[in-house]
Amino acid sequence: MTSNVEQQEGWRPRPLHLGEGEGHKLSLKAFWEGMEKRLGASSLEDLRTVLRAMASRVHPSERQSFLDSLSPVPDDRRQALEHALQDKLLADITEQAQRFEEFMDEAHSEWDEYGEDSGPGPYAELVAPVTALFQRAQRAFERGRWPLAQEAYRALFELLQREDDYGLGLRPEHLEEVDVPEAQARYLCALYRVTPPARRAEALWAAMKEEDRWRFGPPPKLQEVRDISPEPLPDLESFLSDWEALLREREDDSEAEAWLREAVGLSRGAEGLRELARARRGRHPRAWVDLLALLEREGQPREVLDTAHEALKALPTGLPLRAWVADFLATAAKRLALPEQVREARWESFVACPDLKRLLELRECGEAEPERARLMKRAARQVRKALAQPDDTGPMPWEEPPLPRGERDEPYPRLNEVLLAQARLLGHDWQAAWKSASGAEVLGWSSNDNPQGLVVPFLLLWLSGPSSPEKPPRSVEELWRKALENSLAYYEPSSTEEAAWKLSERLSRAYTEVLAALSVSHPQQEELLEGCLEVAHERARAIVREKHRRSYGKAALLLAACAEVLQRRGQPARAQEFLRRFREEFPRHSAFHAELDAAMHPH
Q: How far is CA 174 from CA 124, 145, 186, in A?
């Protein structure tokens, strides 16, 4: 009989994609439950197959350790060894703290060797023993020695907070084998268990508000504390009631408000969150988002749709948070095959929080390019109108106090001239895009308020004939790639690499469709070409004249792209003359000449 595992030959763990589990790793509780479920469904032969597959991937240097792990120590001997080792845990942590003091003197005498990127610097020798201490604290926790685990983690966190006079010390990022967020959750879980029920809410509040303790990351959410162990927290229902009451007294605190919403969701689910969202005249607007996320996880698109409509009626116009609500509405409407509501939701999301991602989502509501162009022209008018209004959006998200882990910053509108240029180009309104870009500064292309760095490469790409069977010229293609990268840099600094890559793919695809559909008369093409050549010449001249040596490569790439466009359009003599005139204007700038040679004749 073929085993279940053999039927899945070539199986590998499925990567977690954006949107699954909200991007969070699997909790320990869910991991153990999943493992027990799979063990229960596996035969002895299945387990042997799994072990053989695991053994085949073991590094040669770890083979003996792997074999040893399959031969458990007898229970009585193992327990004796564990108790002896754990009884020394606090003393061993104190010993490493004393070693830190000793290393501080060495740091003073060898300061010149250590810079900002020197890692643990003089404390490198502490990495291995402190890592081992975290592992021992975890074993104490897993064996139910709550007081020891609490004290051990408290002492270890204090060690990670210590630093010398130069600001150097041992930091969580130096302990690559330690999951510090999980260690934080174990600490709070142990604290919960050792504290009498009547004092638990106050004890957790005090611990979670200790700023120094969480200096290297926000405190865990209660769900993380609950799920860090497969054993349920005792008296959780009673605690949640006390915890909610305490948080309601302190909900003006941004963290307390977030923890309150979590407590309500854990204790009373969707109905509790709905009640919280509706209560007290919008005191808890994020409760709508939590409620929608919960309903979406439960697979209730109709409930999501109705709730999102209610939330949009309740939330004030102009509140960026409306963008999240509209995003949930769009997803639900798509699942329910309601294209008109999808379009309305995408528009509401873009108006509430204009940014590149939402611009592309709005564009994708159009079935064909003419309809997409109309949507983009409407978006461009909205961005232009918003840019003309006084800036009263308040502080940037990163200026606010840090929210608990898993709590996202408010969506922030990314209104700027480059976003307006994106909307205009995607809306086929190259005239408005060029008019704005041609009057911009020739320096500062990396600024999000200078559309020239996007529009000129776009026009050069189009003028080189991208719809022809030939690939775009090398320098033109490279210039355009860099322009898109620069646009994406202003999308969302905290976005994941995968999300940024997906956005890049969508943006490139959108421009490919636009370039294929763009229609410009020959006289207009010549006028645009003259304008681009003039901007390129002025930009390169400013860079070289002002000796911005780090930008010589950028100037050379732009000039090379212009020459390639001329060559592609059947004007090779003009291309040579264009470069010759520039070289003669700066005959003594050998460093720039070298960059231009490299751009025209790459290896």
A: 8, 27, 20
Count CB neighbours of 231 within 10 A.
12
Is-contact 17 498, C-beta < 8 A?
yes
Instruction: Give the integer Cα–Cα distance in Å for 380 and 38.
Output: 53
Residue whose structure tokens are 């327990």: 79
Residue 399 CB contacts under 8 Å (≥ 6 apart), including other chains: none
The Cβ of residue 1 has, within 10 Å, a number of other Cβ atoms equal to 5
Q: Which tokens belong to 143? A: 């064996």
Angle (nearest 5°) at CA 209 between 204 and 210: 105
Distance of CA 121 to the CA centre of its chain: 29
Which residue in this structure is represented by tokens 């002896």?
A: 84
Q: In the structure encoding, which two tokens stand for residue 83, read together? A: 């108790």
* Phi, psi torsion values for 456, nearest 5 degrees: -60, -50
Residue 191, both tokens = 């604290």
Q: What is the rounded CA–CA span in Å between residue 225 and residue 221?
A: 7
Output DSSP code: residue 253: S
Residue that is written with structure tokens 């919280």 in the block: 276
What phi and psi values does residue 71 have, to the nearest 5 degrees? -120, 80
Task: Give me the average pLDDT of each 10-residue run along the chain (603 residues).
Answer: 34 29 55 69 75 74 67 54 68 93 69 56 90 94 94 94 84 92 95 97 92 74 92 94 95 87 95 92 88 96 98 92 96 97 97 94 95 97 90 44 60 87 96 94 91 96 78 93 86 64 90 90 92 95 91 94 94 93 88 89 75
- Tokens standing for 546? 């002002």
Q: 497-517 vs 356-363: helix axis angle to the nearest 10?
A: 50
Q: Round to whole Å and give the CA distance between 505 and 380.
A: 22
Cβ contact 226:236 at 8 Å: yes
Which residue, 214, 589, 235, 542, is CA-closest to 403? 214
- Looking at residue 16, its pLDDT comes to 27
For residue 528, give the 3-state DSSP assignment. Answer: helix
Q: Which two tokens stand for residue 379?
A: 């978006």
234 phi/psi in degrees, rounded to 5: -70, 145
First to last CA, the chain: 59
Residue type (1 letter), 434: W
The pLDDT of residue 7 is: 34
CA distances from 26 to 290, 403, 540 (A): 19, 21, 52
DSSP for 333-388? HHHTT-HHHHHHHHHHHHHHS--HHHHHHHHTT-SSHHHHHHHHHHHHHHHHHHHT
pLDDT of residue 497: 72
- The type of residue at 531 is G
Q: Vertex 186, ends 180 and 189: CA angle to 5°?
A: 145
Q: What is the pLDDT of residue 378?
A: 97
Say how far apart CA 536 and CA 514 lie, in whole Å. Answer: 23
Angle CA(404)–CA(407)–CA(412) in degrees, nearest 5? Answer: 125
Is the distance from CB of 284 to CB of 259 less than 8 angstroms? no
Q: What is the rounded CA–CA span in Å between residue 585 and residue 577?
A: 12
